[in-house]
Design brief:
It contains four helices and two strands; from the N terminus they run ββαααα. It is mainly alpha-helical.
Length: about 120
C-alpha cells in the first residue's frame, strides 16, 4: 500500500462563546443558476424535517445540486401537468371573462402544485 501524498489541510476555527467552530466554506459551481421557489422549498424542507440528511448533503456539497435537480423536475412537471389539465378542463375565454380565466388557471395550478409538493418537495 502506498502512502497518501495529498497535502494536509489546515482547518481554522472561530471562537463562539465557549466553542470553537470550524470555518467551512462551500464551493459553488461557476455560473450556477439560482434556486427558485421549488428549490428553496426543498432546501427548507430538508433543513426543518431532515436536518441530519441536510447537513450530510451540505458537507458533501450535494445539497445545492440536489435542490437544483428537484427544482428542474418540479418546473418540468408543472409545465407538463398544466398543459394536460387545461386540455381536460378548459378555462373560460380570457377575452370575455378575464377574472374567471385567472381564477380557473390559479385553481389548476394549485391542484398541480399539490401533486408536485407531495411527490418531489416533501418526500
Amino acid at each position: 500500500m502506498g502512502k497518501s501524498t495529498a497535502p494536509p489541510t489546515e482547518i481554522t476555527y472561530t471562537k463562539v462563546g465557549d466553542y470553537l467552530l470550524p470555518n467551512i466554506t462551500l464551493n459553488e459551481p461557476p455560473n450556477a443558476e439560482p434556486l427558485t421557489k421549488y428549490g428553496f422549498m426543498r432546501k427548507y424542507y430538508l433543513q426543518d424535517h431532515r436536518p441530519v440528511l441536510c447537513r450530510q448533503m451540505l458537507m458533501s456539497e450535494e445539497l445545492y445540486p440536489h435542490c437544483h435537480e428537484v427544482q428542474r423536475q418540479a418546473e418540468n412537471r408543472l409545465k407538463f401537468m398544466m398543459e394536460q389539465m387545461v386540455k381536460s378542463n378548459p378555462p373560460p375565454d380570457k377575452g370575455t371573462d378575464p377574472l374567471g380565466w385567472a381564477a380557473h388557471m390559479n385553481m389548476l395550478k394549485h391542484s398541480v402544485e399539490e401533486v408536485i409538493f407531495a411527490e418531489l418537495i416533501y418526500e
